[in-house]
Amino acid sequence: MGANTMNGSPTEASTARGGDVLAALPQHLVQQKVAEALAEDLGLAGDLTSQAIFSTTDQMKAEIVARAPCVVAGLALASAAFRQYDSSVETVQHVEDGARVPAGTVLMTLQGKARSLLGAERVALNFLGQLSGVATLTARFVDAVAGLPAQICCTRKTVPGLRALQKYAVRAGGGVNHRFGLFDAVLIKDNHIAAVGNLTRAIAQAKAQAGHLVKIEVEVDRLDQLSVALESGIDAVLLDNMDIKTLRQAVAMVRAAAAPIICEASGGITLDNVKAVAQTGVDLISVGALTHSAPCVDLGLDCVIDHR
Amino acid sequence: MGANTMNGSPTEASTARGGDVLAALPQHLVQQKVAEALAEDLGLAGDLTSQAIFSTTDQMKAEIVARAPCVVAGLALASAAFRQYDSSVETVQHVEDGARVPAGTVLMTLQGKARSLLGAERVALNFLGQLSGVATLTARFVDAVAGLPAQICCTRKTVPGLRALQKYAVRAGGGVNHRFGLFDAVLIKDNHIAAVGNLTRAIAQAKAQAGHLVKIEVEVDRLDQLSVALESGIDAVLLDNMDIKTLRQAVAMVRAAAAPIICEASGGITLDNVKAVAQTGVDLISVGALTHSAPCVDLGLDCVIDHR
Amino acid sequence: MGANTMNGSPTEASTARGGDVLAALPQHLVQQKVAEALAEDLGLAGDLTSQAIFSTTDQMKAEIVARAPCVVAGLALASAAFRQYDSSVETVQHVEDGARVPAGTVLMTLQGKARSLLGAERVALNFLGQLSGVATLTARFVDAVAGLPAQICCTRKTVPGLRALQKYAVRAGGGVNHRFGLFDAVLIKDNHIAAVGNLTRAIAQAKAQAGHLVKIEVEVDRLDQLSVALESGIDAVLLDNMDIKTLRQAVAMVRAAAAPIICEASGGITLDNVKAVAQTGVDLISVGALTHSAPCVDLGLDCVIDHR
Amino acid sequence: MGANTMNGSPTEASTARGGDVLAALPQHLVQQKVAEALAEDLGLAGDLTSQAIFSTTDQMKAEIVARAPCVVAGLALASAAFRQYDSSVETVQHVEDGARVPAGTVLMTLQGKARSLLGAERVALNFLGQLSGVATLTARFVDAVAGLPAQICCTRKTVPGLRALQKYAVRAGGGVNHRFGLFDAVLIKDNHIAAVGNLTRAIAQAKAQAGHLVKIEVEVDRLDQLSVALESGIDAVLLDNMDIKTLRQAVAMVRAAAAPIICEASGGITLDNVKAVAQTGVDLISVGALTHSAPCVDLGLDCVIDHR
Amino acid sequence: MGANTMNGSPTEASTARGGDVLAALPQHLVQQKVAEALAEDLGLAGDLTSQAIFSTTDQMKAEIVARAPCVVAGLALASAAFRQYDSSVETVQHVEDGARVPAGTVLMTLQGKARSLLGAERVALNFLGQLSGVATLTARFVDAVAGLPAQICCTRKTVPGLRALQKYAVRAGGGVNHRFGLFDAVLIKDNHIAAVGNLTRAIAQAKAQAGHLVKIEVEVDRLDQLSVALESGIDAVLLDNMDIKTLRQAVAMVRAAAAPIICEASGGITLDNVKAVAQTGVDLISVGALTHSAPCVDLGLDCVIDHR
Amino acid sequence: MGANTMNGSPTEASTARGGDVLAALPQHLVQQKVAEALAEDLGLAGDLTSQAIFSTTDQMKAEIVARAPCVVAGLALASAAFRQYDSSVETVQHVEDGARVPAGTVLMTLQGKARSLLGAERVALNFLGQLSGVATLTARFVDAVAGLPAQICCTRKTVPGLRALQKYAVRAGGGVNHRFGLFDAVLIKDNHIAAVGNLTRAIAQAKAQAGHLVKIEVEVDRLDQLSVALESGIDAVLLDNMDIKTLRQAVAMVRAAAAPIICEASGGITLDNVKAVAQTGVDLISVGALTHSAPCVDLGLDCVIDHR
Q1: CATH domain E14-143+294-303 topology
Q2: Is F40's Cβ below 8 Å from some Cβ in C?
Q3: How far is CA E185 from CA B106, D20, E24, E290, in A?
Q4: Which of B183, B260, E91, E128 could pair covalently with E74 via S-S, beta carbons 3.0-4.6 A apart?
């Protein structure tokens, strides 16, 4: 990760998006996903190591520290991991999700039984590292198009079971969300068109069947397809795998349409080419890698020795 | 991914490890994880697009194709996704998990209702892409130490909810598994030692408490700690974040011990330095990135148009 | 139910909407809801009566018969109830969901163990009766606006746990679906406006935050609110509790807007006034009663005595 | 609903049955059903509207108001909906389940975050409206037989998944409960008799097999069947679809039996004929409509603007 | 276990109760309990031993053999364990639940993959051993009262999670079932009476509140209490911890009552005293040990070597 | 149970193993198992008896008393049963798990609503009785080998669903745990050897496949097998069904091996022969009966009448 996009002193840490947006993570999913992850790590026998080494009363203080600059996401899950494991653990959160922090930032302080802190550590760090990874990669794309109108958007290429959490992390990184699933919008893709054999008919059927609050987007990879789509009256177009020149033409065609239509680019977007794509004037740039390939952020839990 | 490590024609595809090893993925986890992922993508309304566009009888044939060279893992999950969605879908698997395949390889052929193939496509590809990503990254590390005795090993730094599947993918890539959780071995880490303040005592307690079929490993980052650990009689040492020279000394100390002790290196292992680490003579090299940061493999589902 | 809207001989039975639309009921929900209902009815001891009276080999043939004219919905659930209970039960379905049938129509024939038919009977009939009730009430509203452009639409006022099934039944009755939940569209209602104190700001924030595939609808009950909403640029308006005259004015205002905006009427809609509402030219008429107060359709399972 | 049976000022509100009876709703079912309903309404993305419009700190005060006279049932579920969604919401309950209240009665006051009140509103109202609907319809039948010894009783014709809650609502309305499922009593019905071909044998087998704490009831629709049943020694008879005259004869036959036998009437019971049925002297009148067709009670959540 | 009560050759094996009674085990509980037990034994890593030793194609034939005389119960669970683990395993059942078999009897033959037979072996044997243990202990009590009218009955003192299965095993052993839970009958026990302070009032309230298909039993340990109970009109009495002489007096008092009342003895019942208790004329003798302390039956899975 | 091993006054009660060891029961399993058991006992209707007899405000004080000398295990489950049922119940625990107590000891005092104490009583006692049964039987075996180095060990012959709880109870009784499942160690048993036909090969494959933290144990029943196993280099041997003389020879062979190998005896171990087995010098003696056949401890809940 480029230190330049993420560095700054802790006091400079700023929130990529307001906490109000980020609060939209359904609380029941937080509790459910943490419970599943704890069960996965603890099995039937629990934490053999801590149980052997610590007494039930040994206390400990610890910090979760970012070992690399990052955008934070998932603090509520980290906290829930410790507190589901042992409700007497005290957690103090020092930043908010969406904060951009330099390496060395203390994200959370924990106090409680040594058994509890070290028993829930890995689950907490796994969530926080994965989600901060998504937020951080998102922020790098967001930074790369700074000043341009395009927004960075995620896809349905998510890690199975973590979709809602990952989409939240995209927001934490300054991105926006695409569909949450097959259920909340129509997106007519290349395979649909290939299988049905006729774009006009596909769009007509979608418009006839979709509920009045369901938007319709069509994926096209050629300008002639785009013409057809624009004539059919849709809400958004996904311009897939077009080169910059074609993209620019496509945007012009869309802007020439009577009704306002959202223009989304996708396919082979990288940190190297995303700015050029944004400069074509598209509204959205969707990047599967945000959720399918974001590297985990390096975080650690450090035992705090009290030398008083 | 370096094409050099993965290329070859489809006919050259070989299995990194025998299918017997790979078969060890508990079947109930396959069904459960696929069911959760389908529910996540379908919600209450199902696949709005396919339902609008296709009739219930429209048929389709499709292929899952690797768009990049990779080591395959997760075919059973991809197949289960289609067949849980619609048990009348026919799936034919053309390679086995663990196969190294070049870009363009057809991994699986599907035949059935258009609604079913496109409704379950994303869930199938998400599993297959994530797990093949883990297998592929593992294989690159395995290749990097080819000819040396060291094995490549995973950690507990896994994606929440996918641990068993990811550990399976590590095996598919030619790696070996470390602990599955806190419950199946003792690993005394830096924080345990810091909190308890005394390595000798920590080991003694672990040996006193652990069941007779539980092995004990100790993480050390200094040679003096290693001396203490070796005197206490343990099953394995985790040499953490040591430079190559120190690692070599550590291995020598371990080999000089009376009993055979497993020697594991970890911390900051990359494709660039893994060979040097392996040359120190360690038995195992554990790499968190295998499961926390493996990029997804690019796969696609291609509609097959039958022109007969 | 008015026999006039539903009567006709069995051979005249027609499907209100095509089976393609109706097939959109996610199969995993069917199996899950049926499993829960069977567990609810069987408890730990199972069917005390049938177990006492029938031997394990006693066979039976039975029919599910509509005792009143109705629009059928939920046949897949009825069939699943018998077959989850005992996979050897044979079910033959004589009509499709969406069929309008007169009293006396045999909907399904069953053959199998007497224990199995009578053990799963009530669960099957409860699903079929409830969902056919929704479809039948919907069809009565649909009939009442026949020839007019307005569509009949459901709401989120559903029976807890049955939302997806009830929304399916609305489609079976010829209606269309509104939002499936809080998650798939924005609907700014009176309480949101009251709490935020400013309609323009509420709409602006919704437009800023909502994803590009999320539509925005605003509920208004006065024409001055409607003016504000139309100026703010939204996708749909919900005209709540307006009298016919005001509704007509509202429709005119909406039609005068530059962009096409969906016009939905709601509030106090009954079979008596729905036609007048439709004549105002609204696109949609939403009726909470379709899902919160539809009376169950009277169905019976009749034992067929074979006199050969 | 007849205003005459339900009206009165709030201060006249009285509880149909004591709170002691009503407390019998298993608490784990309350929490489980509310959790399922919240998940159904919130999906992966949560409440898009409130999240967009309100900040995380916006506060709100609101009231749940009965818009029609009714008998209340389900307040614990409404409260649980808000508090599962956000444990900081304060709920104050102004009446008890079982209370008969006029239109306009404030049932519950709520204070907390605007996001939380409007996010859980619909789930709370759906439970409260459905269960109050059951209680209110029950109370109308109870009122119709006031002064007569017959009790109003529910059946197993319940909404799948809500049986325990609906049976509780029947009690809240002054009714009594029949079997909770197939597992807690034997009820030999017409289909059992038809299938087994011999009522005497069916009863004999039931008596031989049923546990000593399991009662046996037999459904008959003819007096000759009743004679057979009475001779066989049973605990209760269900007189199904008999006209008033036949019912009266049946009651006389039952009363003439040596042992006390419960006399239940069922089949085609309406508010119009229930009194006549009760006057035949039966002990119980069971009405499927109480749980399969009770219309939802009209309730609203009103935002309270504080004008101090 | 006394060989005398259980011996006989395999060909003499007889079924304690008809298969019709035993079929009453709800199938969904069988599948659910087996799934939970398999997950418990397999964890995330599966069967490490079989996966290491056998190839995926190694076949095996095996038998489940009773190593001690017993009454069999739970064959369906054993079979389900193998077939859930691997649906290609073939199981042949040689006896029926309820069969009394001598040591050495082959209960089931299995053929399939070695991995599957040895992977599911322990779960299958644990169910079969536990339930056959319950059936066998029950049969010993049943045998001890042979020729006397008393039936042997279980209690709610069951192993958590296995109540339905254990109650089924009691029936397989020739016993009968008491209440399945707190929900299907009223049993007023010593603590209820102590807490409410007045037996007459307790019975009166129970009679007033209980549904018309709910029976009422009262536990008494003194004859004066019994008098009160009999006057109050109840369905059954539980004579707790009475000596034989008192029991006889109690039975006489019960038989002198106008209505037939079930007479149950309990408390300190052993194989040594159960016949004397039965000779007092009680209808039922309930024995908690049947389900809380039945020793597991010794069963084994023997690998069958085919020497052809 | 021999009173001699368990008696003593309450003040002499001592803890068999330290609380630190016993604390290793994963908390989420406690809550989950208690929830399942409460649902099992309460069904849809709840506690019919207490609901009928007590008002919602009737208070009660009660004690859980050991009616026989025992080693206590499961107090957290008993407490959780009351508090899940009604969080206002106050529980005071008078001993710790692992305490050896004489008959008459008050283990726990409870205060709260009469409905809540008597509604959760049976679930609490069932857990506490079952687990104390396991602990008590374990302690008897532990006592029988007092002064000898052998430890008493459990097996996988556990009650389905209760494995983690039973293994905890074994520790409470002073025993140690064997494998928790098929997933945490390799144990090559007679059937594996029979099926694979070659012990040396089986061990070689296990060593090649097992992770570096997985121990390997081999079951042998003959000395020639033991020789083979010792040559292959394993971590532990299970000496199955050997007579005392053979056992002694086996131990000598194991001790003569170069590396330290754990020596476990199993098969037909009883309280009568366990001392002789221990005297052979084995490290561990595993006893299936600890978890498959431990009789339940007799406990009671006594209503405390306050006579102040």
Answers
A1: Aldehyde Oxidoreductase; domain 3 (3.90.1170)
A2: yes
A3: 63, 18, 19, 20
A4: E128
**CATH 3.20.20.70 region(s) of chain C?**
145-292
Q: What is the DSSP string of D80-115?
A: HHHHHH-TT-EEEE-S-TTBEE-TT-EEEEEEEEHH
**Tokens coding D75:** 């307040």
- Chain D, residues 78-117, CB within 8 A of chain A, namely 84-86, 115
pLDDT above 50: residue C16: no
Sign of the alpha-carbon dihedral angle for D278, D245, E211, E236: positive
Q: Do the beta carbons of residue D275 and residue D254 sit within 8 Å?
A: no
Residues β-bridged to residue B20? none
- Taking each helix axis from N to C end, the angle separating D114-144 and D163-172, rounded to the nearest 10 degrees, works out to 60
DSSP three-state, residue A70: strand
Q: Is A231 a catalytic residue?
A: no
Low-confidence ranges of chain A (pLDDT < 50): 1-19, 308
Would you call A74 helix, strand, or coil by DSSP? Answer: coil
How many beta-carbon pairs under 8 angstroms link E with F?
231
Q: CA B219, CA B264: separation in Å to the nearest integer?
A: 9
Exposure string over F144-168, b if 16+ CB within 10 A, otherwise e: bbeebebbbbbbbbbbbbbbbbbbb
- Please say whether the beta carbons of C195 and C161 come within 8 A: no
DSSP reduced 3-state for C297: coil
| Distances, alpha carbon F221 to alpha carbons D284, E154, F234, in Å | 70, 40, 16
Regarding pTM above 0.90, the answer is yes
pLDDT value of residue C20: 57
Distances (CA, A) of E270 to C70, D199, E138: 62, 40, 11
Average pLDDT score over chain B: 91
Q: Using a CB-CB distance cutoff of 8 angstroms, which residues of chain E are in contact with residue F185?
A: 48
Where do the CATH 3.90.1170.20 domains begin and end in chain A? Answer: 14-143+294-303
What fold, for C145-292? TIM Barrel (3.20.20)
Mean pLDDT to the nearest integer, C205-232: 94
Cα of B298 to nearest chain C Cα, Å: 25
Residue B219 is a catalytic residue: yes
Give the separation between CA D76 and CA D84, rounded to whole angstroms.
Answer: 12
- Buried (b) or exposed (e) across E104-121, using 16+ Cβ within 10 A? ebbbbebbbbbbbbbbbb
F-facing residues of E in 191-250 (CB < 8 A) are 191-192, 194-196, 202, 205-206, 208-210, 214
F162: chain E residues, CB-CB within 8 Å: 159-161
Q: What is the CA radius of gyration of chain F?
A: 23
CB contacts < 8 A (A, C): 65
- Contact flag F181-A44 (C-beta cutoff 8 Å): yes
User: In this complex, do E43 and A43 lie within 8 Å of one another by their Cβ atoms?
Assistant: yes
Question: Backbone phi, then psi, for E62, in 5-degree steps?
Answer: -150, 160
The answer to whether F219 is a known catalytic residue is yes
Q: Give B222-243 pLDDT, tens digit per residue.
A: 999 999 999 998 999 999 999 9
Which ipTM value was assigned to this complex? 0.93
- CB neighbours of residue B77 within 10 Å: 26
Could you give the CA distance from residue C70 to residue C93 in angstroms, rounded to a whole number?
Answer: 16
What average pLDDT score do residues B181-187 get? 96
State yes or no: pLDDT of E4 exceeds 60: no
C183 neighbourhood in chain A, CB within 8 Å? 180, 184
Distances (CA, A) of B156 to A12, A66, A75, B171, B177: 33, 19, 20, 15, 10
**DSSP, residue by residue, A221-269:** SSHHHHHHHHHH--SEEEEES--HHHHHHHHHHHHTSSS--EEEEESS-
| Cα(E194)–Cα(F114) distance, integer angstroms | 11
Contacts of C188 in chain D (CB under 8 A): 49, 53
